[in-house]
Amino acid sequence: MKSPLAESQRDALIEAMLPDVPFDGWSRAALRAAARRIGVPAAEALALFPDGPADFAACFSRWADRRMLDRLELVADTIRRAVKRHAALPDAANPISQFFRVKERA
Question: CB–CB of 45/35 below 8 Å?
Fold first, then answer.
């Protein structure tokens, strides 16, 4: 089982690495700089990514996927609220129903 604490530390390190990646790549040097920046001992940071750059890339991919899903959920919530508001309007004032009515006539 993966440790939630280790996962959150990996995420913090990945996030702290991002400014260095364009210059240093997904390297151990970038990891050490990120660890220094957020106060994690370098040995501990290196232990969290035993396969080095391959682990960095895999962890970054998971981190980015989670962030994307969080943002998509926010968008979906916004859309759901807008649809509920528009559904409560009478047909004449409801832009969504007007849009579909125009589409049906075309």
Answer: yes
- How far apart (Å, rounded) are the C-alpha atoms in residues 53 and 62? 14
Please state the φ and ψ torsions of residue 15, each to the nearest 5 degrees: -60, -40
Output the CA–CA distances (angstroms, integers) from residue 11 to 1, 3, 38, 103, 105, in the order listed. Answer: 17, 12, 12, 46, 52
Its pTM stands at: 0.69
Supply angle C-alpha 90, 91, 94, rounded to 5. 85
Look up residue 85 and give its two tokens.
């508001």
pLDDT tens, residue order, the chain (106 aa):
467 888 999 999 999 999 999 999 999 999 999 999 999 999 999 999 999 999 999 999 999 999 999 888 888 888 888 777 766 666 656 666 556 554 444 4
Report how far residue 81's alpha carbon sits from residue 3's, in angstroms, rounded to the nearest whole number: 36
Q: Are 51 and 28 in contact (CB under 8 A)?
A: no
